[in-house]
Write a structure and sequence with these properties.
This protein has two helices and 32 strands. With 429 residues, it is mostly beta strands. The protein folds into three domains: 106 residues, no CATH class; 149 residues, no CATH class; 150 residues, Tick-borne Encephalitis virus Glycoprotein, domain 1, CATH 2.60.98. Strands 5, 6, 9, 10, 24, 25, 26, 27 and 30 form a nine-stranded antiparallel sheet that branches. Strands 12, 13, 14, 15, 18 and 19 form a six-stranded antiparallel sheet that branches. Strands 11, 20, 21, 22 and 23 form a five-stranded mixed sheet that branches. Helix 1 packs antiparallel against helix 2.
Amino acid sequence: MGFQQGLSGLTAASKNLEVIGNNVANSNTFGEKSSRAEFADMYAAAMTGSASSSTQAGIGVQVATVAQQFTQGNITPTGNPLDLAINGNGFFQVQDPSNQIQYSRNGQFKVNTTGNIVNDQGNKLLGYPADAQGNIVQGAAQPLQLPTGGIDPQPTTTSTMEFNLDSRGKVTVPATGPAIDFTNQATYNNATSVTMFDAKGQPVDVSYYFQKATTDPTNGDTWNVYATANGVTVGGATGAPTPITTLQYSVDGSTLVSPAGGAVTFNIASPGVSADGVTPLPINGIALNVGGATEFGSNFGVTNMVQNGYTAGQLTGVSVDNSGKLIAQYSNGQTKAAGQLELANFRNVQGLTPLGGNAWKQTTASGGPTVGVAGDGNLGTLNSGSLEESNVDLTAELVSMITAQRDYQANAQTIKTMDQAMQTLVNLR
């Protein structure tokens, strides 16, 4: 039976070399997981079905399985926002043309002509869609699709302004004439501006003017705040402006006594013509918050000026955050979630069947997938603009190749030796 052992050894060594060769060939394949051949010995069963004798020699070796090794590969940056790497457990879910689900660690994704995110095989990446407001709608995963349209304008409804008024400033209320002359800086202490937007997304340049009204070391100083919109008075009338609010500070200047909470509401009923010759629509009910304003003995300065309006915008790009959210970026500076990737994991990843094309499919041995978003449970996080390299250790594979080659030679030698023994037997006279 010496030929049997040697022949099985040659077969096993050949299979081992095939596995090593496949690992080496895919050492530069992103998302590839190395494999190893695992072997088992063989013994002839006794005719009676009892256990083999302790003096019985084995009849060779067999390949028990080719097991893939799902260890983490190195993550390398690429700069492409749709290149994704999973740092930790989990698989991307992609849908092939026959609507079957495949699982992959290769994050080389692109956008096709219909706006779907696909891999090199044309399979669509699965995840959760987002509604018109950018809220993720979780449920059954579906092919992710980037929006093709732009983002609608939003009129300004709220604004927040934080600043410091110089307590050393002099009272600038004119003794005669209009309460303030926007063309005469002697009638106010400081000014600043912000761009707001009407319902069509048309810009309105709003300027605020701060005029010290009283100096009162006992009850606290007061300041009048006036506004114009594209040069037109907000509050009162042209030539007879009225303040949109009056600020009264505590004696130490750290707190606004009035208005309560720093809440101011005003309307822009008649904005003036903008620099490009457009007359914007009225903007009503603007809620201005100046609760963070102070009056200290230092120079005037605005530390925060925000408002929630914006003009219309077109899609300019997309990025992916660590939780797998697709963030659409628009030409007006706004961003909005366009969807979120869903990852899958398995209790027994060794039970997955490789399909080629950097993909696996679910089997009974692997069990059903556990799904979720990146960073939840035992699922890994996502690195955008990066790819996971193959986990093949090329040095180790080359050493294993030498070992497998010697193993093949040794098994061939047993066959040669058995052949010589048989030849000697045949030559007996």
